[in-house]
Amino acid sequence: MDYPIDAVIAWVDGNDPAHRAKRQTFSDSAEQLKREDIGGDIRFTSVGEIRYCVASLLRFAPFLRKIFIVTDKQNPEIDQFVQENFPDKTTQIEIVDHRVIYRDYDSFLPVFNSLSIETVLWRIPDLSEHFIYLNDDFMLVAPTVPEDFFSAGKAICYAENFSLPLARLLRKIKPKKNGHRLFGFKDAMINACDVIGHKRSFPYIGHIPLAQRVSVLRDFFMEHPEAMKENMKPRFRVPTQFNPQVLCYLLGLESGACILRRRKGKDLYLKPKDKLGYVQAHLDRFDKSRTGIFCCFNSLDLATPEDQQLVISWLQKRIGVKG
Predict the structure, then answer these.
(1) Cα–Cα distance measured from residue 46 to residue 57, given in angstroms and rounded to the nearest whole number
(2) Of 75, 76, 78, residue with least CA distance to 55
(3) With left for phi above 0 and alpha for psi between -120 and 50, is residue 270 left, alpha or beta?
(4) I need a labelling partner for 61 at 20 to 30 A (CA). Which of 91, 139, 227, 299 fits?
(5) Would you say residue 218 has pLDDT above 50?
(6) How far apart are CA 57 and CA 82, in angstroms?
């Protein structure tokens, strides 16, 4: 590998009273704060996943040059944890405030919307051309090498091809919940196709670390500044927003900056359910996997205290860290 690779993690501590108060101040309505697909607490709460996300990168991707943690005037306070577990690390960790990536667009702040924030991650100062994007509940669970993310400089898109006409049909017939259709993960991918006039199929990504190219996003948004502004502006999610990572892949697959590989077998996903033995069964499946290198513990804060501790203990053992 003759080029640096960085990682970018979007993180927020929604349990912080100041952040909660800010969300209430800038929301347009009480409903906006209740809807789980837009501004509900589920989008912001955490149980300390950020430390295991960072630890997994330090343990299983030691080739990373820098890890950028993007926040809104917050600090994850992981220095002591990192120092105790990785005293000899060479990867730098840097906190980046929203004001940095929103420079020249200060009037849009504050934002409480991951799609908006992801739109301008490429504006992080000193971010390498090749970077990996993660939410704080994404982790690596096995050793990786640069070639797991980039091949000859091309970003690897782990995904399954999904028919765009079928996706549109499914969105049209999606049942309503409390009087409205939820704006979901796939909807933002469909919108990415619309931005560039794509008609056939799109890469259906998962909740995994995503290899990205700065130049692909930068060049497109410099040519289409209004598309960037419209996507980075909404403080809370709106159903017209697109997924920036899928946009990067669509553009990169056309230009040759990205390549597609099947996601099946690479990622392990767990979303706690009120079902006895569900979490343990999934952790056992994780341990048996020979090909899985990514995992996501989605909405871990909704799990029972017992299941939360089960996951944390598993992560500590898998990554090899002390709590």
Answers:
(1) 19
(2) 78
(3) beta
(4) 299
(5) yes
(6) 11
Q: What are residue 2's phi and psi, to 5 degrees? A: -115, 25
Q: CB under 8 Å to 35, separation ≥6 — which residues?
A: 180, 182
Q: Is 127 exposed, middle or buried (0-12, 13-18, 19+ CB in 10 A)?
A: buried
Between CA 33 and CA 36, with CA 176 as vertex, the angle to 5 degrees is: 25
Task: Give the whole-angstrom CA distance, residue 159 versus residue 152.
Answer: 19
Grade residue 40 by pLDDT with cuts at 50, 70 and 90: low
| Whole-number pLDDT of residue 43 | 47
Whole-number Å distance between alpha carbons of 292 and 23: 37
Which amino acid belongs to residue 200? Answer: R
CA-to-CA separations, 296 to 126, 136, 210, in angstroms, rounded: 28, 9, 12
Tell me the pTM.
0.93
Structure tokens at 201: 């199929």
Buried b (16+ CB within 10 A) or exposed e, 7-43: bbbbbbbbeeeebbeebeeebeeeebbebebbbeeeb
DSSP E strands in 72-140: the ranges are: 92-97, 130-135, 138-140
Mean pLDDT computed over 306-320: 93
- Which residues, in sequence order, are bridge partners of residue 9? 69, 134
- Residue 281: strand, helix, or coil: helix
